[in-house]
Amino acid sequence: MNAEFEKIHEYAAGILGQGGSHGMDHTERVVSLCRIIGKREGADFCILIPAALFHDIARPLEKEKGLMHEVEGARMAEEFLLSIGYDAPRIPKVAQAIRAHRYTGTEKPAFLEAEILSDADKLDAMGAPGIARTFLRAGEHGGGIDDAIAHFHDKLLRLHTTMYTASGRKIAEERHAFLVQFLETLECEMDLLPIDKSPEKSP
């Protein structure tokens, strides 16, 4: 990690912290996926990695003030990158990638690095990490297993059809299969008959 990436990482970690479904651990996994996909697809890491490190930077502000984290995060990223003298021509692309990464957002990725970030963020909502994050999310919202199952159906099972890159689609295929298998098992085991709590009769 070069010195500029280290500064960005430190700044993001200081805001996000490690815990929760959108903590710095999620960001670091997205960065790792971006590196894997970016290497395969020939991405400019000087755009991709800052965008990945910053993509959820405004999540706490969204929770606190209702701001759209992808929009506010792009603004914060531009401001910080300018403050450290980052390569100016790349900053607008970093910002656009952040604005376009959200699954439910209206802005679509306009170039390769933005597509990769979108794919990587969705991939971390799939497979084993996605399952773990779904239950974390349910707990954060005061929900239980039924809420997590609803989130699988509302979002997670659709993600494999929304990948932009060939590399993203390949990883998504494997993670989607794991999701389906897990959910089928969970729903089957959750569908057991209620426990009979009546006193047992003596033989």
List the helices and strands and how they pair.
Blueprint: H1 3-16, H2 24-41, H3 45-54, H4 59-65, H5 69-83, H6 91-99, H7 112-123, H8 127-140, H9 145-154, H10 166-190
What's the CATH class label?
A: Mainly Alpha
Q: How does the overall form come out from the CA principal axes?
A: globular
CATH topology: Hypothetical protein af1432
- CATH architecture descriptor: Orthogonal Bundle
Radius of gyration from the alpha-carbon trace, in angstroms? 20 Å
The unreliable regions are none
Please outline the major beta sheet: none
List the quaternary state of the chains. Answer: single chain
- State the helical fraction: 55-70%
Name the CATH homologous superfamily. Answer: Hypothetical protein af1432
Main structural class: mainly alpha
Quick synopsis:
By secondary structure, this protein is mainly α. The chain is 66% helix and 0% strand.
Structure, explained:
This protein has 203 residues and is mostly helical. It has a single domain (3-190), classed as Hypothetical protein af1432 (Orthogonal Bundle), CATH 1.10.3210.10. Helix content is 66%, strand content 0%. It is built from ten helices and no strands. It has helices at 3-16, 24-41, 45-54, 59-65, 69-83, 91-99, 112-123, 127-140, 145-154, 166-190. α2 (24-41) packs across α7 and α3 crosses α6. The model has no long low-confidence stretch (mean pLDDT 90).
Which features would summarize this protein structure in a list?
203 residues, mainly alpha, Hypothetical protein af1432
